[in-house]
Amino acid sequence: MRRPPAKPPAGLFLPLDHAAATPLYRQLYTGVREAILAGRVAPGSGLPSSRALAAELGVSRNTVILAFDQLAAEGYVEGTARSGTRVAAVPVKPPVLERPRRRGPGPSVRGRAIAATPMAALSRGQTPAVPFRAGVPALDRFPVSLWSRLTARRWRHHPALEYGDPAGYAPLRDAIAEYVRVARGARCLAGQVIVTGGSQQGVDLAARVLLDPGDAVWMEDPGYTGARTALLAAGARLVPVPVDADGLAVDQAERMAPDARMAYASPSHQFPLGVTMSAGRRLALLRWAARAGAWVLEDDYDSEFRYDARPLASLQGMDEEGRVIYVGTFSKTLFPALRLGYLIVPPELVEAFRAARAVSDRHSPTMDQAVLADFLAGGHFARHVRRMRRLYAERQDVLVDAVRRGLGDRLRVVPSAAGMHLVGWLEHGQDDAEVSARAAALGVEAAPLSRYAMKRPERGGLLLGWAGYAPEAIREGVERLGAALGR
Ligand SMILES: Cc1ncc(COP(=O)(O)O)c(C=O)c1O
User: Fold this and answer.
1) How many A from CA of 301 to the centre of ligand 1?
2) Cα(316)–Cα(343) distance, rounded to whole angstroms?
3) Cβ of 398: how many Cβ atoms within 10 Å?
């Protein structure tokens, strides 16, 4: 176990005002919390001992202990007196914000809670993708001219310029229902489809319609930060649940929070670890949800890409009790800027979701929905996905081969039966955030596994996306990774 540093990390500048009305422990708590949320201190970095920090700041040790206790209770830091306090990977509880006595010019209490969520996760990805950013499709293979022909045809013949149904453009809802029934074994009629602005809006709507602030939600750990952000913004109290070779550890979750209101899971291809949830776990999850009257949010973000000819039906299709909210997206199969996805919700929830969507932005752009409906109905979607599946399988082979030849034991990879990324496992004891930073300096994006974790993972790893990169770029990226790994 590494000893915590004696000095505060560089980003932790903590000016305390001894004359202020705000108690010192509260000032200290706020200062550390803001440094964490602003990313000035990295997840996993050690904080000084309470004794050292008290001496450094000229306050009593009790003041520091009180502040650290509050930070630990809210999930910002973790650790023990013996091993030292460390910054947690990501906060797991919504920030408890006090109602201001006098209203200032800034955002509301709720607005501040939203601003304090780990938004950074969603603002990544606006620069051109370089290997090995995960989840990026082969955008240069998207049939742009076909899409523009379909768009032009719509504008010529049937431009839809009036307000539309908040639940989505009817022909698109029909096409999606047909697709998820056939391809995902879902049980669904078109009336249960809610077209959304990508899965991000799907999770946000589900959180707002189904959760009250303070409700417990089981969250895969490590797990998808985009979903975590939306759940935190709705005031959910996240319960980090470990993921093993069978997926979300339902039995452990039941012990930790049997009365949770919701579970978030990616059963087809867990993000980021890549495991597929076993049949036993699926049943256990559905049984718990039925017993507890809880919801299961099934994020099926990249299930179209399976390489072992064994596409698994969705959890939604196994659900007899109407507890699953299925989240789908066209960001991976088509392109992320399209901002179109969908929810499949139980029939009795359709009106609440339709209302929530209407309140926020009425609906997704009708003409984009119409072009997508034509793309699906014309068989172009199925053809494109088939092509990409072949291409991604080849590209994964290139990656696995290059890593095994070039990096050997320094980065262990196991081919993935699904999806668009895999995890390269570092040797025990290596800090994935450090390796990732060295790789970034060499022009390679390989996100550290710890970025997606709420509790510090036992072994570090790097996320390696392959789908969007040509073989030469993959090989070149692996060489640079080798340099980042050293030896
Ligand atoms: C687990 C997971 N779900 C969903 C998405 C897609 O999000 P959206 O549909 O909002 O583009 C991603 C993309 O990175 C993802 O990794």
Assistant:
1) 6
2) 11
3) 18
pLDDT digit string, tens, across residues 277-291: 999 999 999 999 999
User: Which H, E and C letters describe the chain, residue by residue?
Assistant: CCCCCCCCCCCCCCCCCCCCCCCHHHHHHHHHHHHHHCCCCCCCCECCCHHHHHHHHCCCHHHHHHHHHHHHHCCCEEEECCCEEEECCCCCCCCCCCCCCCCCCCCCHHHHHHHCCCCHHHHCCCCCCCCCCCCCCCHHHCCHHHHHHHHHHHHHHCCCCCCCCCCCCHHHHHHHHHHHHHHHCCCCCHHHEEEECHHHHHHHHHHHHHCCCCCEEEEEECCCHHHHHHHHHCCCEEEEEEEECCEECHHHHHHHCCCCCEEEECCCCCCCCCCCCCHHHHHHHHHHHHHHCCEEEEECCCCCCECCCCCCCCCHHHCCCCCEEEEEECCCCCCHHHCCEEEECCHHHHHHHHHHHHHHHCCCCHHHHHHHHHHHHCCHHHHHHHHHHHHHHHHHHHHHHHHHHHHHHHEECCCCCECCEEEEEECCCCCHHHHHHHHHHCCCCCCEHHHHCCCCCCCCEEEEECCCCCHHHHHHHHHHHHHHHCC
Q: How many whole angstroms from 98 Cα to the centroid of ligand 1?
A: 32
Judge whether residue 42 has pLDDT over 90.
no
CA distance 370 to 172: 7
Q: pLDDT tier at 137 (50, 70, 90 boundaries)?
A: very high
The residue whose CA is least distant from atom 14 of ligand 1 is 135
> Domains in the chain, start-ordered, CATH in brackets?
1-97 (1.10.10.10), 143-378 (3.40.640.10), 383-485 (3.90.1150.10)
- Considering only CA atoms, which residue is closest to atom 5 of ligand 1? 301
The pTM of the full predicted model, rounded to 2 decimals, is 0.83
Is pLDDT above 50 for 188?
A: yes
Ligand 1 pocket test, candidate residues 123, 264, 268, 271, most atoms within 8 A of CB: 271
